[in-house]
UniProtKB/TrEMBL annotation:
Source species, domain of life: Bacteria
Pfam family, one: rhaM
UniProt keyword list: Carbohydrate metabolism, Cytoplasm, Isomerase, Rhamnose metabolism
NCBIfam families hit by this protein: YiiL_rotase
Assigned EC number: 5.1.3.32
GO terms for cellular component: cytoplasm
Native source species: Zobellia amurskyensis
UniProt keyword Nucleus present: no
GO process annotations (BP): rhamnose catabolic process
Gene name for this UniProt entry: rhaM
Protein name: L-rhamnose mutarotase
Main enzyme class: isomerase
GO MF annotations, alphabetized: L-rhamnose mutarotase activity
Length: 104
């Protein structure tokens, strides 16, 4: 299992809406993530900086990368685009974080 961590930037006035849209997440998106080998997916918010910290365990980098090519994911990105910093294709600006420590 590969541990992935990344950060994204949420616009300050959108914390409640971002949270609402994730609770619950679209069932078809949840299914897609599971089909692409995503497990233990969490998103945390730093309320001072408005950075979101994402953590997921994935079966492979290839499966993880393929999620962004699906229509469901593109639709989700468009749905979330006004709430956070995004790229031209509506995908969130996401910065991978380097894994430096793990304890089981």
């Amino acid at each position: 299992m590969i541990r992935k961590a990344f950060k994204m930037k949420l616009y300050p006035d959108n914390i409640e809406e971002y949270t609402r849209r994730h609770n619950p997440i679209w069932p078809e998106l949840e299914q897609l993530l599971k089909e692409h080998g995503v497990h233990n997916y969490n998103i945390f918010l730093d309320s001072e900086t408005h950075f979101l910290f994402g953590y997921a365990e994935v079966e492979s980098e290839e499966k993880w990368s393929a999620i962004g090519d699906t229509e469901i994911c593109k639709k989700w990105w468009k749905h979330m685009a006004g709430l956070m910093e995004t790229n031209a294709d509506d995908s969130p600006v996401s910065i991978d974080l380097k894994h430096v420590f793990h304890m089981s």
